[in-house]
Amino acid sequence: MLTFVIRTAWKKLWTLFFVSIISFGVIHLAPGSPSQIDPLNPRFTREQLQRYRAAFDLDRPLPVQYSRFYWKLFTGELRSFKDNQPVLPKIWGRALNSLPLFLVSTVVVWCYAFPLGIAAAVRRNSTFDKLTTVLVFALISIPGFYLSDLAINFVVQRLQVDVFGLETFGRRSLGWLPWLMDRAWHLVLPSVLGAAGGIAVLSRYVRSQMLEVVSSDYVRTARAKGLPEDGVLYDHALANALLPFVTMFGLLLPGLIGGSVIFETIFAWPGIGRLGYEAILNRDYPVVVSLGFLAAVLTLIGTLISDLLYMVVDPRIRL
C-alpha cells in the first residue's frame, strides 16, 4: 500500500509539473497576456509602467517569470495585479465561503441521485421511470443560469425575499438565531440549483449500472434463495454497481472551484468561483493561474483517493 501511494504520488507530481508549464504558457499566449498588460490609468507614464512591470517580473524572460511566479506562489509572496494583495490569503478566504455551498450541493446530489436511480432501475419502463427520465433530461438540457433566473424571479419578485450574498444586510444585529437562519436561507437556493444538474447526471449513471448488475447471475441466484428484495438490491447489486462511481467521487474536489462559477456569480456569493470570474474580467493573471494550479492539485488528489477507494469497494482489487 505504501509503495503504491509513493509511486502514484511521484507520477502525479510530474503530471502537476507539466500542467503548471502548460497553464503558465497558455496565459502568455492568450490575447492580452501578462507581458502586454497596461494599467487602466491613462496618465500612467512610461517610467511608472516600467516600474510596474519590474515589480511583477513582467520584464524578465519567460522561464525566469515561470520560476519566480511559482516560487512566490509557494512562499506566499505572490500578489494580485488588481489590488496588490497576497494571492493565497485571498483564495483561502474565498474558499472558506465556497465550502458550505460545495458541501451542501454534494450531499444533496449523492442523497437524491442514488435512490432516484435505483428506483428507476427497479421499476424499469414503468410510469415512474418514464417521468423521471423526462425530468432528468429536462434538468440536463436547461442551463443553470436559466434555472437560477426562474428561481430568482419567483423568490425575489413574488415572495419578496432576499437571496443574494452570504446574508441579509443588518440581520446580524437581530441576534445569532435570526442571523443563522438567514445564512441558511441564503445557502439553500444556490446549493439546490447547483445540485440539480448533478442529480440528473448521476441518477442516469446509477440507473444504467443497476440495470446491468440486476440482470447478473448472482442477483438472480440471491432472489432464488428467497432473500429479501432490499437485501438483494443494496447488499448484492448496489455494492457491485458502485465501482464506476468511485472515479466520479474523485472528481468532486475540483468541483469546489469549477462547479461554482455560474451560481456564485449569479447569486453574488463571495466564493472561489466568483473570484476566478472576477480575476478573468480584470486580467488578474496571478489569481487566474493560481486557481488553475489549485484545480490541478485537487484533481490529482481526487484521483489518488479514487485509486485507494477501489480496494474498499471491491476487495478483489489489490494495488
What is the topology?
Blueprint: H1 2-29, H2 46-55, H3 62-75, H4 87-122, H5 127-141, H6 144-158, H7 176-214, H8 217-224, H9 229-241, H10 243-250, H11 255-258, H12 261-266, H13 272-281, H14 285-313
Plain-language structure description:
With 319 residues, this protein is mainly α. The chain has one domain: MetI-like fold (Orthogonal Bundle). Helix content is 74%, strand content 0%. The protein is built from 14 helices and no strands. The chain has helices at 2-29, 46-55, 62-75, 87-122, 127-141, 144-158, 176-214, 217-224, 229-241, 243-250, 255-258, 261-266, 272-281, 285-313. The longest helix has 39 residues, at 176-214. It is globular, with a radius of gyration of 24 Å. The model has no long low-confidence stretch (mean pLDDT 79).
Please describe the structure with a list of short key phrases separated by commas or semicolons.
MetI-like fold, 14 helices, mainly alpha, globular, single chain, 319 residues
Condensed summary:
The chain has 319 residues and is an all-alpha fold. It has helices at 2-29, 46-55, 62-75, 87-122, 127-141, 144-158, 176-214, 217-224, 229-241, 243-250, 255-258, 261-266, 272-281, 285-313. The longest helix has 39 residues, at 176-214.
Outline the biggest β-sheet: none
In CATH terms, what is the fold-level topology? MetI-like fold
Distance between the termini: 7 Å
Pairing-aware structural class of the strands and helices? mainly alpha
Name of the CATH superfamily: MetI-like
Shape: globular
Computed CA radius of gyration, to the nearest angstrom: 24 Å
Question: Which CATH top level class fits?
Answer: Mainly Alpha
- The proportion of residues forming helix, as a percent range, comes to over 70%
CATH architecture: Orthogonal Bundle
Report the uncertain regions. none
Helix-strand sequence: HHHHHHHHHHHHHH
- The tally of helices reads 14
